[in-house]
Write a structure and sequence with these properties.
This protein has 659 residues and is of the alpha+beta class. The protein is built from 21 helices and 17 strands. Strands 6, 7, 8, 9, 10 and 11 form a 6-stranded mixed β-sheet that branches. The protein has a 5-stranded antiparallel β-sheet with strand order 4-3-2-1-5, covered by helices on one side. It starts with 9 loop residues before the first strand and ends in an 18-residue tail after the last helix.
């Protein structure tokens, strides 16, 4: 399909600015710029066509670009030409800009033709050709992506996690200690040596030069590198350090994601995926964990970040988290400064909009190509990996360690996602929050929070707290549908899941939109953390309301990964062959052959109990004479206008659709 201005969620460049084009239900489109300082604009499709003709609007390819310098050897050039021959043959039989890789039969025929044409004695398999076509669609280097730009493993750190954690602990103590205006690198090296010695392990203590180099990577990367005097550099360094000095809780919070290599299974032992991605939000003043969110698999998403922010802002009711010691998770509230890295999940339009709506603040990020100093969340992540993850059943270590082992996450997956979250919450609530912390003068995070409460400080809820539970993170414009024109009783469908409300509010919205000449399309916001409900914007009041799913198998809190895993299980069950007792019944086959020979040439005789044709005609005449006539008080037109009670009942047709 050719790229068009009528497509939704498409990357464009408008007036030399990168932006995203979203479709509106009124025949117009909105352009949202990557630079949030520039207001979004709404244009009609005719205005977009004119901008396209004048060269003001351009489409942007979403292909992944290689990093670094690209050099082709003669052998690689030959291989690139060979692969392009097969891929081009697939593209010639597809529509322009199509991402279709062709079916199995189609690829087999193409492989046979191209191999004969170019004299290839080692043609690829159909699955390999599919991978080449996929690379052609997604990578700027095309089918030869893996030979031109191989994935190079990053160099392993010189010291392990425990040494890095000790380094962060020493820096943390310096930042929170008495040295307000400067960092003493000699003292920092002494503290590091002391902490490593206390581990009682055969670990080499890093040199002073390593400590100095590491510290500069953490802090001095955000300072000018040249053209500045030494005295001015020290003054800037003092200002950097002072930024971490906070007086009250929630004055500054840090957020970051971590990926733990723990395989997850469902309740029946089926493997759901490798690893768990977790987003944590920590308070700098007290070091308490305000909130978290987790999903199975690798990748930070806007939905995941928003769920963590929501968890941090809201009070945690008793029973909503796991504890073995009866401890409380009483840390929450509106924060002033939200610090995170420049990942798309933290800087996306959805995340920024949620932060502005709930907290009135934007994500504070690091400039491009500069290492952001988040010592507090970095220290917590390392503590989590050492004190929690390494003790978890099924944890196989970092990726570089896993590649050297004979077993994988799948081989060692024993925990369900709920069991993993139970252990994680117990460790946070029972262990971490009640362990003395060197960065807060030996207090535990819980004691530090209580100390602030005793001084008169109190946390606050967001001003629009009643809207915080509304699902958000992803946006989709969906049509309100029905099984016949004007019924609108089937609700909306978002990512193959049907949603509808019992109060028929969606139906009323659809009838209102059609009455004013607009299409019955509504804005839906949702997330992947809980697919049991979505938020729908009522165009009459500009208010969001929650619409639940009509799928009884989707429980509240079910993630999209878990739902897709259930669908896969159902699909696998339905793919099993049905039993056929007649497939190998030789006696039945012999008897059928004998009867066929006996009845050869004979006509089928009419059965005794068959109904005569004249009887059927008599029944039809009797039915016509006894046909029902409506009462005079009701006309046929008024009967058609009456809404049937069946219109409000969910029909299974259209709810379950194939993937």
């Amino acid at each position: 399909m050719l790229k068009s201005i009528y497509q939704n969620n498409i990357s464009i460049r408008y007036e030399n600015l990168n932006a995203t084009l979203y479709q509106l239900p009124n025949g117009k489109a909105v352009i949202q710029f990557e630079n949030h300082a520039i207001d979004e604009i709404i244009l009609s499709h005719s205005e977009l066509e004119q901008a396209l003709a004048l060269g003001q609007l351009h489409f942007i390819s979403k292909k992944e670009s290689p990093k670094g310098e690209i050099k082709l050897t003669p052998k690689q050039k030959v291989e690139q030409e060979r692969r392009n021959a097969y891929v081009n043959a697939v593209r010639e039989q597809s529509e322009p800009n199509s991402k279709n890789v062709g079916g199995l039969k189609k690829r087999k025929a193409i492989i046979a033709n191209v191999a004969e044409l170019i004299g290839d004695n080692n043609p690829p398999s159909p699955s390999t050709l599919g991978v080449w076509c996929q690379n052609e669609n997604e990578k700027s280097l095309g089918a030869a992506h893996d030979i031109i730009a191989p994935n190079r493993r990053k160099r392993s750190p010189k010291f392990d996690d425990e040494v890095q954690l000790s380094m962060l602990e020493a820096i943390d103590e310096q930042l929170a200690g008495n040295l307000i205006d400067k960092i003493n690198l000699t003292e920092l090296h002494r503290l590091l040596a002391k902490k490593i010695t206390a581990l009682n392990k055969p670990i080499h203590v890093p040199s002073y030069s390593y400590v100095k180099k590491t510290f500069k990577k953490l802090i001095w990367k955000i300072l000018p590198r040249s053209g500045i005097k030494a005295t001015e550099l020290k003054a800037l360094a003092r200002n950097v350090i002072r930024k971490f000095k906070v007086k009250f809780p929630l004055e500054r919070v840090e957020a970051d994601g971590i990926y733990l290599q723990v395989g997850i299974v469902d309740e029946n032992g089926n493997y759901l995926g490798g690893g768990v991605t977790i987003i944590f939000i920590i308070d700098v003043k007290t070091r308490v964990i305000l909130g978290y969110s987790a999903r199975v698999g690798r990748g930070e998403t806007s939905s995941l970040v928003i769920q963590a922010i929501r968890h941090a802002l809201c009070p945690k009711a008793e029973g909503s988290f796991h504890t073995k010691k009866g401890n409380h998770w009483s840390y929450y509230g509106l924060f002033s400064c939200f610090v995170a890295d420049g990942g798309t999940a933290f800087t996306s339009i959805e995340t920024s909009s949620f932060l502005m709506r709930m907290c009135g603040t934007l994500t504070k990020t690091l400039p491009v190509a500069a290492g952001w100093l988040k010592p507090f969340i970095e220290r917590f992540n390392l503590t989590l990996r050492i004190k929690f993850a390494k003790k978890m059943p099924g944890y196989v270590g970092p990726m570089e360690d896993q590649m050297q082992l004979e077993f994988s996450m799948k081989d060692n997956a024993v925990l369900t996602f709920e069991e993993f979250k139970q252990r994680l919450e117990r460790w946070i609530v029972d262990d971490y929050h009640h362990t003395p912390h060197s960065g807060i003068k030996g207090l535990t995070p819980d004691e530090s929070w209580q100390e602030s409460l005793d001084s008169g400080w109190r946390p606050e809820l967001p001003p629009n707290y009643e809207q915080i539970a509304l699902p958000c993170g992803k946006v989709r414009f969906a049509a309100i549908s029905g099984d016949k024109k004007g019924s609108f009783h089937l609700g909306v469908q978002v990512e193959n899941i049907r949603y509808n409300d019992m109060n028929a509010r969606l139906k009323d919205i659809a009838r209102h939109l059609t009455s004013v000449g607009e299409k019955p399309i509504v804005r839906c916001e949702y997330d992947d953390i809980d697919v049991s409900k979505i938020s729908v914007l009522d165009p009459r009041t500009d208010e969001y309301f929650i619409v639940p799913t009509v799928d009884a198998d989707i429980e509240e809190g079910m993630t999209r990964e878990a739902h897709q895993a259930e669908l896969k299980v159902i699909k696998d069950r339905m793919s099993r062959p049905a039993p056929d007792s007649f497939s190998d019944d030789e006696d039945s086959d012999k008897l059928k052959a004998k009867l066929a020979a006996k009845n050869s040439g004979k006509k089928h005789s009419r059965q005794r109990d068959a109904i005569p044709d004249d009887y059927l005609e008599a029944v039809n005449k009797q039915s016509e004479s006894n046909s029902y006539t409506p009462p005079k008080s009701f006309s046929s037109q008024s009967l058609s206008d009456l809404s049937s009670p069946l219109d409000d009942i969910e029909d299974d047709d259209g709810i379950f659709e194939s993937d």
